[in-house]
Design brief:
Blueprint (H helix, E strand, L loop, with lengths): L1 E6 L5 E3 L8 H4 L12 E6 L8 H5 L16 E3 L2 H7 L4 E5 L10 H14 L3 E5 L3 H13 L2 E7 L4 H9 L3 E5 L3 H15 L2 E2 L6 H7 L1 H9 L7 E5 L4 H15 L8 E7 L4 H8 L22 H10 L3 E5 L1 H15 L5 H13 L9 E5 L7 H5 L18
Parallel strand pairs: 5-13, 6-7, 6-9, 7-8, 10-11, 10-13, 11-12
Antiparallel strand pairs: 1-2, 1-3, 4-5
Bound molecules: pyridoxal-5'-phosphate (PLP).
């Protein structure tokens, strides 16, 4: 197998190179306050090995460079009560909260870690709303790599603390995620290291494609009819499409599933661009911190995929997200963080429009324990403590 980069805008090919991030030609058209220009995608060429692990076979870095961790695979749940309630007997939830650091981001982090190792680079720099940072820090700890992290000071404390547990160098940014993104790019330019910023580093979308390969494997080598994806920067969305596209390329599936991206109403840049055809800038504000972004970095790639494969983008309110989080917990035993619950809120909003025999996969992208302050909004903490059994009155 051979792997090359191809520019998602102009189609130019490049050899893999750690110094290459976005396409040098298309980058010249980059304007302020818009998604990244010239995002590079990995193209697979040649025959797929007939034996071995599908994910490792389809990834551009040999397995020997991956950190010593259990494989990041996520698990498909078959929630009996919710299947009944939603009247969708072929409903599945993909839980990435059980990944090594508790979020979907591990899929990108392990590939970036492996690529840095292969290239002999021992430090990795990134900006994050929280999960990418705690993920890269944990994966980097396993791989003995130095991690430098830029996080908004408003990130949920658990995510900051998790990164510090892994001994990352942490810069709290007095601003939002978009500011952290710019600062981390400046940092890696000045001080070196591989930059893992989402969509900027081509290995992020490529790593995230393993979600589709895992869904395919766990469904018995079949594609689902529909996948529902929580969306901020739209790198997960791009990764979902990329994985199924590679499966199509090798004839392992026959058609692209229908993909629905779900955004928070208060952070809906991709939704607005999907409606209007162009991106505008509005400040984001949502309880789902992991999908709170002003500029979706992978926005152009995502729009191209959505158009080509007939996808859709919808929004849900913060109230719906908080309700959906508790609903999913109660109905299935799966406690996911607010961003993960956004996809579940999306399904609840649209489940009447879905055919009963469709195989539907909803992504639950991070553990609920990552942000308990928001989860508390959806439940009621007992007001007073009891001292003895008499304090309990029927
Ligand atoms: C990062 C993240 C998302 C959104 O992914 P994007 O690529 O930014 O769209 C969703 N859920 C969780 C838990 C995340 O950490």
């Amino acid at each position: 197998m051979k792997f090359r980069y191809q520019c998602s805008e102009c189609g130019a090919f490049f050899d893999l190179d750690p110094a290459l991030n976005t396409c040098p030609d298309c980058r010249k058209n980059q304007k302020e306050n818009e998604p990244l220009r010239g995002v590079l995608e990995v193209r697979l060429e040649g025959d797929l090995p007939s034996s071995g692990n599908l994910s490792y076979n389809m990834l551009p870095v040999p397995r020997e460079f991956f950190p010593s961790l259990p494989d990041v695979t996520g698990k498909l749940w078959q929630p009996a009560r919710l299947r009944k309630e939603m009247e969708l007997p072929r409903l599945f939830i993909m839980n990435d909260g059980s990944n090594p650091t508790g979020s979907f981001k591990d899929r990108a982090s392990v590939l970036v870690s492996a690529y840095a190792k292969q290239c002999g680079i021992d430090s990795i720099v990134l900006a994050s709303t929280g999960n990418a940072g705690s993920s890269m820090s944990g994966i980097g700890a396993a791989a003995d790599q130095k991690i430098v992290l830029f996080l908004p000071e408003t990130a949920p404390p658990a995510k900051l603390i998790q990164a510090l547990q892994y001994n990352a160098t942490l810069y709290k940014v007095a601003g939002n995620y978009d500011m952290a993104y710019e600062l981390s790019l400046e940092y890696s330019e000045q001080y070196g290291g591989m930059n893992r910023n989402t969509a900027w580093n081509p290995m992020t979308m490529e790593g995230k494609k393993t979600i589709s390969l895992d869904i395919f494997s766990q469904l018995g080598e079949k594609a689902p009819d529909r996948v529902i994806v929580p969306t901020g920067d739209a790198c997960i969305l791009g990764g979902v499409y990329k994985g199924f596209k590679d499966l199509l390329q090798y004839g392992l599936i026959k058609k692209m599933p229908k993909i629905t991206a779900v955004q928070a109403e208060g952070s809906s840049a991709l939704y607005r661009a999907w409606q209007k055809g162009s991106f505008d800038l509005q400040s984001s504000r949502t309880v789902a911190d992991s999908i709170s972004v002003d500029i979706p970095r992978n926005g152009y790639t995502a729009l191209r995929y959505l158009k080509k494969f007939n996808g859709d983008v919808i929004t849900v309110t913060d109230e719906q997200i908080i309700e959906a989080q508790a609903h999913l917990s109660c109905g299935s035993g799966l406690f996911t963080e607010p961003a993960g619950a956004a996809a579940w809120a999306g399904l609840r909003k649209m489940h009447h429009t879905i055919d009963k025999d469709e195989t539907v996969v909803v992504l639950a992208t991070g553990s609920g324990l990552k942000d308990t302050a928001t989860a508390l909004k959806g439940v009621k903490m007992p007001g007073r403590s009891i001292h003895n059994i008499q304090d309990i009155r029927g």
